[in-house]
């Protein structure tokens, strides 16, 4: 056997074995991959969530992509989402962490990004029992009207984390950080954590003078004292950041989308204002405990969360070992994305999915609490967003209701409702590309 035949045969055998090994892994179907970049070209453009939703129409509700070095599984149906988030929740419970959020070791202390382990369970229990329980939310209702000037720093963090980062697709570049995204995020984290440290030190001084406030920071400090072996300052800083990130940009974005949709259909505004006038009283402030008596307002919030979920993809999951999912094998280390945007606009689940119709929920039992997989803007299973009770049932309806019960609203001169720009801007959150401009006038 000559040298050429030996080399050619060896190369052919390697390629065949590589192909065979990939085929034997029984990956879900997916589009053709290019060398090195894989399927990254499918994410080019401003709206990856729409690109992947269109691919799902070809390859099905579970498909595989290669994004650089990263095998990525995309889930695009409520049935498959239920399989991942509920039936096999444990296997898919850990996070795939964007490189930007590893800055300042944030992800090592954050309840959002920690793996499911004893520390995560402790932090989750703290949030569920001491911060976001219905009892605590009721007792701290008055504190949520106070203003905290953290918006700019938090938005800078979200902007950096939302940028397409080469390191997330090619981890080999981690130490180079070619786009400086991690370094920039580290600067913003440092500013925020210095601010948190100052707030905590100031609070400790107040406690020494016996001035005690029953707010989130007070709860965290008390828990740190009681669990000093498990919880330290890093956990407190990261928990505070989790709360601010989860409760600012997503909430304001949802309120903006709700108002935009209402302005496009003035009859919806009249209907909800009539409900508010009857239940609360025209011009009166909306309280959180009013929301349960405002069913049409609740329908508006649900429909907004359906059409404009705060995040187009649920925060990415990661499998720590090979997992069998519906006759496919999801390889160890794969990233798993659930395309909530695609599920929420699936014509097999929703009648006229592209039309904003709050009435679809009028006699429906569907809810956003992670039990109905047609509507999971906050996720489901053990990693469901812990801030769901605050955002969906309190902050968003109170803010939208207050705007509508205090003023009438109209678009700027010369803009017809049907001409309002409803384009989306893709990022960690799904914001309006063109900020809403509306005119308030007496009700």
Secondary structure layout plus pairing:
Blueprint: H1 3-24, H2 48-59, E1 62-67, E2 70-75, H3 78-87, E3 94-95, H4 118-131, H5 134-139, H6 151-162, H7 166-169, H8 181-208, H9 216-226, H10 233-247, H11 249-264, H12 266-279, H13 295-307, E4 317-318, E5 323-325, E6 328-330, E7 335-338, H14 340-344, H15 388-406, E8 407-411, E9 424-425, E10 431-432, E11 438-442
Parallel strand pairs: 2-7
Antiparallel strand pairs: 1-2, 3-4, 4-7, 5-6, 8-11, 9-10
Helix pairs in contact: 6-8, 8-10, 11-13, 11-15, 13-15
Helix content: 40-55%
CATH structural fold name: Cytochrome p450
| Computed Rg | 24 Å
Shape field: globular
Into how many domains do the coordinates divide? 1
* Total beta-strand segments: 11
Based on the structure given, which CATH architecture is correct?
Answer: Orthogonal Bundle
Low-confidence stretches: 1-24
Key descriptive features of the protein:
443 residues, alpha+beta, Cytochrome p450, five-stranded mixed β-sheet, two-stranded antiparallel ribbon, 11 strands, 45% helix, globular, disordered N terminus
